[in-house]
Amino acid sequence: MVAELYTSFFGFSERPFTLLPDPDFLFWSDSHKRAYSVLEYGLATRAPLTVVTGEIGAGKTTLVQHLLSTLDDDVTIGLISNAQGGRGDLLRWVLYALSIEAMAQDDYITLFRRFQEFVLDEYAKGRHVVLVIDEAQNLSVEALEELRMLTNINSNKDELLQLILVGQPELRDMIASPYLVQFSQRVTATYHLQPLDLKQTKAYIQHRLIHVGGTGNEMSSYAIKSIYEESGGVPRLINKYCDLAFVYAAASEKRIVGIDQVRELVDDGIFVKIQPDSTLVLENPIFKVAE
């Protein structure tokens, strides 16, 4: 594959700019440090609800994965990646995430009792339960209120259950809604993850290059500036542009990725972009929208 050929051409141990979240490549910008501190604070204080938001591709899931890898053995983790549905469906997602049996014929009361018994049993064993809901902006107002009701299990001085919600900026707007006043009052800590600035974008790119055995200087400053302008400092978009820029450079046998390669891939129009009016535009001319 061409992408694999460029790793060989540049002497990298692996592709430095994949799109999958990978804690091994985690770059600690100031904003990522603050977001992670909020997550740690929520866990340390047994906060009922902790919320971290950010744009698509900002690195939220990578932070969560890193956090989960550092937790002590006395924490029982349930991870829900993309829950959807109405009342009762969310509870089934929760039970599934915690490997709690749920029969198709079980009603809501039965499911809730089973969940409550599990949380209390874990507490009796000296453990507490943490539920992490990724892509939480997909939840309805009713589902968020249902999550709040789950925290009612924390009726004594000890917190038995913690919820960490991670999502796109719409989640922050939902929580600020007058329909979720009680929910927002349960939120102990919240943080919105910001995109990288130009200086951080350069450090981010160099960090990933060095991580795979490069020098960090395989891309020119002009190319980095162009990628920053095209990506808006969003890590996932930076990865997309960098990955293809290295493909273009290897194909031209260029040892340093220059602005010409970035301009070329931009001019080729191979990325799908969203126009300001939210209309989906397929930039590559080989794609046609059926009339």
UniProtKB/TrEMBL annotation:
InterPro entries attached to this UniProt entry: AAA+_ATPase, AAA_22, ExeA_AAA_ATPase_DNA-bind, P-loop_NTPase
Domain AAA+ ATPase: 46-188
Pfam families registered for this protein in UniProt: AAA_22
Protein name from the UniProt record: AAA family ATPase
